[in-house]
Amino acid sequence: MEMPVPNTAVLSKKAAVVRRLSEVLPSDAVIHEEREVKAYECDALTAYKCPPLAAVLPSTTEQVAAVLKICHEENVPVVPRGSGTSLAGGALPTADCVILGVSRMNEVLETNYDDRYVRVQSGRTNLSVTGAVEENDFFYAPDPSSQLACAIAGNIAMNSGGAHCLKYGVTTNNLMGVKMVTMEGEILEIGGAHLDAAGLDLLGLICGSEGQLGVVTEATLRILRKPEGARPVLVAFNDNEVAGACVADIIKAGVLPVAIEFMDRLCIETTENFAQAGYPDCNALLIIEVEGSDAEIDMQLDLIAKIAAKHDPIEVRQSKSAEESAAIWLGRKSAFGAIGQISDYMCLDGTIPVSALPQVLGRIGELSEQYGLQVGNVFHAGDGNMHPLILYNANKDGDLELCEQMGADILRLCVEVGGCLTGEHGVGIEKRDLMVDQYAPDDLDIQMSVKDVFDPKWLLNPAKVFPLDSSDARRVGSIAAE
Amino acid sequence: MRPETEAALAENIAAARGPLRIVGGGTRDIGAPVAGELVETAGMSGITLYEPGALTLVAKAGTPLSEIEVAVAAENQRLAFEPMDHRGLLGTSGTSTIGGCVAANVSGPRRISVGACRDHMLGVRMVDGAGRILKNGGRVMKNVTGYDLVKLMSGSFGTLGVLTEVSLKVLPVAQTQATIILHDIDAARAVGALSAGLGSPYEVTGAAYDPALREAYLRIEGFEDSVTYRTGQLKKVLADFGEMSVSDDVTLWEGIRDVSVFHGKEGDVWRISVRPSDAPAVLEAAGADAVLLDWGGVLIWLRIAEGRDVRTALQGISGHATLVRASAQTRASLAVFHPEDAGVRRLSDALRAKFDPRGILNTGLMG
Asked: Which of A33, A190, B270, B319 could bond to A194 as cystine, CB 3.0-4.6 Å?
């Protein structure tokens, strides 16, 4: 993955920039020693690494503003960082950038159960937002797999989803307001504890903008009362296509599960060897979870079992207890770890119309043979958000590149059948150069002109989201024009 | 002009010599008065794709909302955000279009549980002020590919571009519904009751209060047995709030959705969004002739003497007020949309300048 050539003017004034940053931050909040900045050289897309010029760890919105003002004046690019769990390289540094980490800003500022919101600093982890309200039986709904580690700041940047968004929506549907700092250092309040925008929906625009429009320092999040209970049913099939048809029938029947997860044979077998969840020997399985009281759950699971029975399943395993639920979820939750045990892998994130599921799975199988790389499929079937895992050998020359080419082919396929490149991970650098496959030049230009408005000098996370050649004039030109 | 295709619309806009006034079905005459040549979108009509198994529908912007509602009802599905019909409130006639509904981000009582119109939007096609045909988003449920201009377009009232096609998420129709009505209750206690219901695990999908009748309403929807169970449980949660009854009257929620208690009555109509717990104070300060609360108290509808600026009632309270119905004169003098902070205002103006460089699309409608 190509990254822009670092700005030598910036590299050569590192000492001066560090000095200025140290004037507005405590000394332990400015990291600039070569061996220390290495800690920030990559995010969860570990195939790509580059130590930044420096990293800063502000504790307040005012400090964030002061940092951004300095970087703006000095023309230093800034890469905002939550917890560094991005799978798309959203927090990958360049050698001439300052990493702005929000990890020290993790306080809960306000909890309001009557009005059902919580206001937190953006460095707080996703799971600890729920942690702050669960003693009152409330929770924050978006639940990305990395929720133990990932920060709300990163969730907002990527508009993160999770397994339960079929019912509860993704970050943008649960975000009520932000405090944000622009690249010029201006502090803005957008939205709040009320609903909807007074004018243009800037909140909707900021959520998912991959840290390119501003640095979010505080967030007002919708919290919900926990359901009385939740239990899944596991349904095993001999055929991917039939599993796909079953998903469509469940949705059409008017049941709205909180999650419908799909696993194919490679994932089932690998997780069985790893976690011994006791899954049936089959080609495709669905885990469908519903919520409510015990009686409501039984009623919905019975209905789902009835629908599934029409599709000739190998097995229908309805959970009757918390233990049985845990056993059903065990394999699914271990899937990524299990695959990681046997091989390096790249996790894709394309979304497709649910109706295209059989076609796409078939085509992925063909591509797997063509490239000679194995693929496991585990994903959120209810909303068509696929996570094909391409297995490769990082120590074998050319294997990563081959894997990336195959990944690109799969994502183009997602677009071709009416879907998109990324459902919840974001574009980052990973899918940056594929944007031209989904969007025409004018579609990209209007998005880039949004960045022109928020960050005229293109200093915030500049080498992400848009193909480098299409953003080149803006990135380089805006500084040169000064 | 009344283009029948996106390409024709793009040509018309590119060739426009002056300001344009964009109209869908003309049923939602909201905003500061706009001058300019009329552009009707109703010529671009028809459902282009509907996949009930994927819960997605794509339609051209001029498609009548009623046509979409009939099509999805045939598959036992619905637009879950429950878009209100503005005709009775605004005294307009005509046929609402899906494009107009999205452009005004119109949502009804269920907004409090399933989200607004914008939360059900999956993709848009549009023509911007320079006459460029643009698309954003798509037709799948999860999509974070690039910036979310779909949200930005929802509620932008034709000031950024003219929508030509929209993709929406639809949801199953609930098998049945029930409403718990709390009787003889004041505003502060009513908001408390609505909060208690919305903060319970029983999935309340409507939470409204009519001060004239002193009645609070909490709606439960779902499968029959489940509704019976949850209604019973919710009654226990609300036991301290006094006398209550249960109704299965569906038209009750249509009335709340369309603010039917204001229909045919004189005065300006304001729509305010605040934290629910701030609602009683706002009501007190506003001194309106008539009021309706929805969304658990977040949404306050006020009917008030003509020309009065109700925003004084929001002193020290975070939220916003929109002047939904007033004479053209009042709408030109009082800001229809809530004045924004300088920073937000500057960004919004700059965005409009990018989408509509000549400033010809519904110029000044949003202030």
From this structure: B319
> Residue A101 has which token pair?
């980490």
- pLDDT of B332 reads 87
Nearest CA in chain A to B135: A443
Closest Cβ–Cβ partner in A198, A253, A438 for B145: A438
Q: Which residues of B touch A226 (CB under 8 A)?
A: 201
| Helix/strand/coil (H/E/C) assignment for every residue in A306-330 | HHHHCCCCCEEEECCCHHHHHHHHH
Q: Are strands A30-31 and A54-56 parallel, antiparallel or unpaired?
A: antiparallel
Those residues whose C-beta lies under 8 Å from the C-beta of residue A419, and which sit 6 or more positions away, are A350, A351, A352, A353, A356, A384, B138, B140
For residue A89, how far is the Cα from the chain centroid?
Answer: 11
Q: For chain A, say whether B147 makes contact (Cβ under 8 Å).
A: yes
When the pLDDT of each residue in chain A is averaged and rounded to a whole number, the result is 95
Q: Which of A158, A188, A421 sits opposite B344 (nearest CB)?
A: A188
In this predicted complex, what is the ipTM? Answer: 0.98
| Contact: B337, A196; criterion CB under 8 Å | no
Q: Print the SS3 string covering B324-362.
A: EECCHHHHHHCCCCCCCCHHHHHHHHHHHHHHCCCCCEC
Calculate what percentage of chain A has a pLDDT beyond 70.
Answer: 99
A200: nearest CB among B119, B152, B230: B152
Pairs across A and B, CB distance < 8 A = 258
Residues of B with Cβ-Cβ distance to A193 under 8 angstroms: 275, 318
In angstroms, rounded to a whole number, what is the distance separating the alpha carbons of residues A375 and A411? Answer: 14
CA angle A459, A462, A467 (to 5 degrees): 150
Q: Does B205 touch chain A (CB under 8 A)?
A: no
Contact between A380 and B340 using a beta-carbon 8 Å cutoff: no
At A10 the three-state DSSP class reads helix
Helix or strand run (H / E) with residue A303: helix A294-309
Do B107 and B83 contact (CB within 8 A), yes or no?
yes
Q: Given the structure tokens 């640095």, which residue do they identify? A: A215
Residue closest to B344 by CA, chosen among A67, A180, A159: A180
Closest residue of chain A to B131, computed from CA coordinates? A442
CB contact under 8 A, A465 and B146: yes
Asked whether residue A482 carries a pLDDT value surpassing 70, the answer given is no
| Chain B CB contacts of A205 below 8 Å | 147-149, 151-152
Here the contacts of A367-374 (C-beta below 8 Å, separation 24 or greater) are A367/A406, A367/A409, A367/A410, A367/A413, A368/A406, A371/A402, A371/A403, A371/A405, A371/A406, A373/A399, A373/A402, A373/A403, A373/A406, A374/A266, A374/A343
- Which pTM does this prediction carry? 0.97
State the best of A159, A446, A451 to mutate against chain B, taking most chain B CBs within 10 Å.
A446
Cβ–Cβ < 8 Å for A92, A429: yes
Tally the C-alpha atoms within 13 A of residue A413's C-alpha that lie toward its C-beta. Answer: 22
Question: Residue B158 has what pLDDT?
Answer: 98
CB distance B132–A419 less than 8 Å?
no
Output the six-digit token pair for A372: 């000679």
Angle at B343 between CA B339 and CA B344, to 5 degrees: 55
Residue A347 has pLDDT above 70, yes or no: yes
* Cβ–Cβ contact B365 with A under 8 A: no
pLDDT surpasses 90 at B17: yes
